[in-house]
Design a protein that fits this description.
The protein is an alpha/beta fold. The protein contains seven helices and ten strands. The longest helix is centred in the N-terminal third of the chain and has 17 residues.
Length: 283
């Protein structure tokens, strides 16, 4: 079903409602936002975005962002799934990725995105062995780095073995669960290319305060997110060639190999890095 713009708002991209089967007795709701700009360089890349805990596919931040991405030639999918835990959330998200690849859109690679709890699921998914060659980027909106005001208990386990480039976009007033100085240090553990965008004046919603409540405003940081996504979409992602963005662009493979050695006898760490190594060794 197409979604029309409200009076006074700019014309919005069309949306098609979909029902995705994730098991014999369970389905989830999704919408496909059609790209409105023909661009052969980005035509085989799509962006999938999901919501935070308690939200749905109609959350303002992910809805408006999907429209902006579609305007620049990227097909987008938003879906609703209230995951009971990260593992189940990543499992279902992976099924959405595979569903999209099986459709007639010609999609070959995907940027996976999510906000809040959905952002944590995204990084869990980015460590999935079967999808690492398909996932060309991870977009994390309003990432909940730590529990409320407890910066000593960090949610960074999934940071350690991500191969695809990552973009974080977090509000400067979301300090209860994402303190800036703590985040700056935490993202250094991600072996791949990382970009950090701070949204001035935004809280956990990720939406800066409007100048007028009735105004249709696109946040400035959307332009950075869209530019990042379009750049990734223009070339096939090859995990075996991935580098970080430190001086000298150290290969991710070398970083993971060193971490594997440093892990010693830690079974969880060894399994995590071994999974990433399997992807890097693929021809």
């Amino acid at each position: 079903m197409a979604k029309s713009a409200s009076p006074g708002s700019p014309k919005l991209p069309s949306e098609v409602e979909e029902t995705i089967e994730i098991s014999d007795d369970e389905t989830i709701n999704a919408v496909v936002v059609a790209s409105v700009k023909e661009d052969s360089k980005t035509a085989t890349t799509a962006v999938i975005i999901t919501h935070g805990a308690g939200g749905d596919l109609h959350e303002e931040q992910i809805t408006l962002l999907s429209y902006e991405l579609a305007k620049q030639g990227l097909l987008c999918v938003r879906f609703t799934y209230k995951a009971p835990n990260l593992k189940k959330g990543a499992e279902v998200y992976g099924k959405v990725v595979n569903w999209l690849l099986a459709q007639d859109y010609g999609i070959k690679q995907v940027i996976v995105g999510g906000r809040s709890m959905g952002a944590r699921v995204v990084l869990e998914l980015a460590s999935d062995e079967e999808l690492k060659s398909t996932i060309c980027g991870a977009l994390c909106l309003s990432y909940p780095l730590h529990k409320d005001k407890s910066a000593s208990d960090l949610r960074t386990t999934a940071f350690q073995a991500v191969l695809a480039p990552v973009l974080f976009a977090c509000g400067t007033k979301d300090h209860a669960i994402c303190q800036q100085e703590v985040m700056k240090k935490a993202i250094k553990s991600i072996p791949s290319k990382v970009e950090m965008k701070w949204i001035e004046g935004a809280n956990h919603s990720g939406m800066p305060k409007r100048k007028r409540q009735d105004a249709f405003e696109i946040p400035d940081y959307f332009h950075s997110v869209v530019a990042w996504a379009c750049e990734l979409a223009k070339q096939p992602f090859k995990p075996e060639l991935a580098t970080n963005n430190e001086p000298g662009k150290q290969p991710v493979a070398a970083i993971l190999a060193k971490r594997r050695r440093d892990a010693g006898d830690d079974p969880v760490a060894k399994r995590q890095y071994d999974t990433a190594a399997k992807v890097l060794c693929r021809k």
